Amino acid sequence: MLEAINLSKTYTGEGVDYHVLRNINLIIDEGECAAIIGKSGSGKSTLMHLLACLDTPSAGSIMFDGEDLSTLTERQRDLLRNEKIGFVFQQFFLNGRETVFENVVLPMRIRGAEQYRLTKDAMEALEAVGIKDKEEKRAKDLSGGEKQRVCIARALVGKPKIIFADEPTGNLDSNTSAEIEKVLFELNRETGITLIIVTHDPDLAGKCPRIIELKDGEVIRDEKREINL
Amino acid sequence: MKFWELAKIANRNLLRSKLRTFLTVMAIFVGSFTLTLTNGLGDGLRDYVENQVKNIEGKDILFIRKKFVEPESETKPDEPAEYKEATQDEAGNTIDPNSYLVPLGQAENLSKGLTDVKTITPRYPIDGEYITLDGTKKYQVGLGTLSEGMTQKVETGKTIDGTGQIILPLSLAKAFDENINALVGKNVTIGYKVEQPSAMKTETLKIVGVATKGFLANFNSFIDTQTARKIYDEQQGKSGNYNKFDSFTLQLKSGADEKAVEALKTKLEEKGFSADSYADRQKRTYDGIGILQIGLNFFAFIALLAASFGIVNTLVIAVLERTKEIGLQKALGMGRGKVFMLFSIESVLIGFWGAMSGIVSAIFVGVITNIFLARTYLESFEGYSLFVFTFKSIVFVLVLVCAIAFLAGVLPAFRASRLNPIEALRYE
User: Fold this and answer.
1) Cα gap A213→B360, rounded to integer Å
2) How far does the CA of residue B340 sit from the closest CA of chain A (Å)?
3) Is the ipTM of this complex over 0.85?
């Protein structure tokens, strides 16, 4: 599904090269649920941006679904993100003035989908995250947990192959966090969608079957284990 | 994303900060309002001139006068002129009449050697006193001559094509008979004064037509050249300047092409005459109006230019405010082109609403002003509207303002389209 080969990212500032990522090699299979963990500055966000086609590597390559990302044009990269990738962010990035429905269908609007498709897919996505009755509410009137559910619905609506969740519970209290985690893991298990969670929360990471730990831009741990729920 | 959806989103974005959008639109409004009115003023003038001349036609006609030679001045332009007592001749003229009057014979000689000339008719200065249909009820009359080759559009009847004929203005015709069709073929009598010995003479003429409303034809009755000649001879026969005229109408042989006309003009110039056609006269007037219109529009352009900076400002702020949103949209796969288009549509919408409100208000104000002026100051200028709004000029204003707005939006839209999604999402 997703493969990183000798991936490096280097920033050059004031004549000094700053190596954020060095020689990362990873293979993530379809349907996997992986946590990328590490302290801040370890390079985990940069790795996510590269894998999610938001950024380009300084060296190495990424194979996404059998396609080498470096061969794609900007337009093709835009399309790939729109069609195959879902994003869940820590700060939600919802448009508070708009309704839940409008927030959820944004990726479909960008894609240029027909209205009837939009409505159908949005209802499915909202049902999957358990807030079907909130579609007409303004996003700003929702609780934190509900907001993150809307974000997950927005990530789901375009039926992507993979969801990147960047600190999905970072802004939530522990009870709400647990609910959101449950939604995400259930999606992964029941629909087989690939899930990559970037977090520095060891509790959350501990619930993932695979943990990839970064330190100073290098993978220092990559283990898979059985999780019993 | 489809264009229509982008437009809807752009509209919603504008409505987010209503006051800011409103103020920006107001600036555009002022510019569009002014531009529509100044355009309307120019078109009103053009319309006026067109109305004035449209009923008289002369395709193969040139108007001829002696070229005016400036008397040599000894003073430089910035020096005060020395006073000289103006010398008057016995007729009371301060300018030598021979500087502009041309003897008929000289004018007629012009046509010799010029193959394209058919006739040369002087403009006879004639004065009529009254006109009457039944011999008892007399009306004042203004007499004009319809030179050879000219035609007058008529409501009924036909234009002059022979001797002893007259075309009446509509108002006069109606005074004679509400049913103007019945007038054609009837005879009217006009009275005119002659001097030495002082007497009132009359001439009976056949009504051949009633002129279509137009400015010159609103007051004047037109008679044929032979009749005009006869009256002229009786009125001016003993004057010192008899048979000298200040202008002539030259009729070209039909089918003379533009080249021949131009060649003829040059030849006449060489002989010390200026010649211009109907089209030339019209063009000169229109050019004058055009320059006036450009001058007026210039001020409106300045207002629009100032307003366009308002658009730039508004959108630059919007880009800053919506940095995260743009970052999200780009992360979710919205391409640069679409982001650029979204902001461009927003700026064009600001322009569009400003232009629409400006145009509508200007038309409203213009129409009210026209009605008011028609009842007061412009009563004597029948049919003249101060402001005329043509579809063409309205579309012109709309397109121009939208184009200016689009250009104003280019910089902010480009900035938005170039945002890096990662950095934009981190933006605080």
Assistant:
1) 66
2) 14
3) yes
